[in-house]
Design a protein that fits this description.
The protein is an alpha/beta fold and 372 residues long. It has 9 helices and 15 strands. The protein has 2 domains: 8-172 and 337-354, Medium-chain alcohol dehydrogenases, catalytic domain (Quinone Oxidoreductase, Chain A, domain 1, Alpha-Beta Complex); 177-310, 3-Layer(aba) Sandwich (Rossmann fold), CATH 3.40.50. The chain has helices at residues 48-54, 102-105, 174-186, 201-212, 238-246, 260-265, 285-297, 315-327, 346-354; strands at residues 8-14, 23-29, 36-45, 64-65, 69-77, 89-92, 129-131, 134-138, 148-152, 156-158, 193-197, 217-221, 252-255, 271-274, 304-307. The protein binds nicotinamide-adenine-dinucleotide and zinc ion (2 copies). Nicotinamide-adenine-dinucleotide binds next to helix 1 and helix 4. Its cofactor is Zn(2+).
Length: 372
């Protein structure tokens, strides 16, 4: 066992303030404290949630090292860590699973009480990162846009030793959230019609899950004309177009953008699942008011609406199994990766993301640590 050795100096992408571009900086990463793990990050994806956080749409403390969708190798462990050892392949998880709190003990619960996404600090209230003598905050206690990170053991899942590390990072958020939204949360039925608002990483994985569930028709909607060519000449509200296309409407609607307007659009269908995270400052009460009136209006045709997180999966339990499913060719995540770039081109990956040219970055860490 290697109990947290010295401080590691490595490269990381730092967001110095809200809205600033990422700067690749030399940072110091402290050894893991008790119940923590220090991980060499091998690949990381860009999720819409990182973009929301960087734009200040979700509450976060700056300066921070963003990123939460990551795969890596355990470098060292803190005292008391028992579920993994140095050298193990792992996924870093935005939602921990402590297996002790009421949410974790509930058979249907997954929103572990140890989620404190906005604090930017570890469970003991301190940070493990510094840069130029300044404290740097963690992002969702994950921070994967760095060559090394420190994460609580409860937010790490040990995965199969055969896992290809340049690919499986997307199984730490995108795949379970999107694919799971269809197969686990909505339980999409064979022969059904599904509508997916937003064809980014999450929406694409939802489409994959709808297909795997046997949906006979899947309608994807996006403002990006390359993904949804009809967006070019749309002369009426998109929900009217969908009604015309489907006649009676759809059986399942998924919102995978994070806009309250499109969440409201999704309410017109049988089962509406909201995956997108709305800006924390926006008042969601008006959605609930609309739902209330909509349910009354359609009292003979009950509408079910659900907001959910990580597709209701218990994170440490489900992700290793999804990796095995991928290794056994039961699911194919490869098409979800559009570009793979080296770590020092993270900002290029963000440019591609903002231009709608990428859904995921898989950034292989090719730089050796100075202290190794
Ligand atoms: N609930 C969860 O557990 C969970 C987990 C991960 C991500 N999320 C959220 O899911 C959402 C999507 O994440 P992502 O990684 O796929 O992001 P993304 O940026 O890759 O995809 C968003 C897509 O929505 C499209 N879009 C933007 N505005 C639109 C509009 N007005 N109409 C139609 N399409 C529009 C974009 O062109 C893009 O293709 C985000 O809000 C993210 O925070 C939730
Ligand atoms: Zn994510
Ligand atoms: Zn818990």
């Amino acid at each position: 066992m290697t109990f947290g050795l010295g401080v590691i100096t490595c490269r990381a992408a730092v967001a110095w303030k809200t809205g600033s571009t990422l700067a690749i900086e030399e940072v110091q990463v402290e050894p893991p404290k008790a119940q923590e793990v220090r991980i060499k990050v091998i690949s990381t994806g860009i999720c819409g949630t990182d973009d929301h956080a960087l734009k200040g749409l979700l509450s976060a403390n700056f300066p921070l090292i963003p990123g939460h969708e990551g795969a890596g190798i355990v470098e060292s462990i803190g005292k008391g860590v028992s579920s993994m050892k140095p050298g193990d392949k792992v996924l870093i998880l935005i939602i921990p699973q402590c297996r002790e709190c009421s949410a974790c003990l509930h058979p249907e619960g997954n929103f572990c009480e140890n989620v404190l996404p906005s604090s930017g600090l570890m469970l003991d209230g301190t940070s493990r990162f510094t840069c130029k003598g300044k404290k740097i905050y963690h992002s969702f206690r994950a921070s994967t846009f760095t060559e090394y990170t420190v994460v609580p053991e409860i937010a790490v899942a040990k995965i199969d030793a055969a896992a290809p590390m340049d690919k499986v990072s997307i199984i730490s958020c995108e795949v379970p959230t999107g694919y799971g939204a269809a197969v686990n949360s909505a339980k999409v039925t064979r022969g059904s019609t599904c509508v997916v608002f937003g064809l980014g990483g999450i929406g694409s994985a939802i489409v994959m899950g709808c297909k795997a569930s046997g949906a006979s028709r899947i309608i994807g909607i996006d403002i990006n004309e390359e993904k949804f060519p009809r967006a070019r000449n749309l002369k009426k509200p998109v929900q009217e177009v969908v009604m015309e296309m489907t006649g009676a409407g759809a059986d399942f609607a998924f919102e995978a953008i994070g806009l309250t307007d499109t969440m409201v659009c999704g309410l017109g269908y049988g089962v509406c699942l909201i995956v997108g995270l709305a800006p924390s400052k926006e008042n969601l009460h008006y959605i609930f008011t609309l739902v209330f009136f909509w349910v009354i209006w359609h009292f003979s045709n009950l509408i079910i609406i659900a907001f959910f997180c990580f597709a209701d999966y218990k994170t440490r339990d489900c992700t290793p199994q999804l990796v095995i499913d991928y290794l056994q060719n039961k699911i194919n995540i490869d098409p979800l990766i559009t570009h793979q770039l080296p770590f020092d081109q993270l900002h290029k990956a963000f440019e591609l993301y903002h231009a709608g040219k990428t859904t995921v970055l898989s950034a292989r860490n090719t730089v050796e640590n100075k202290q190794q």
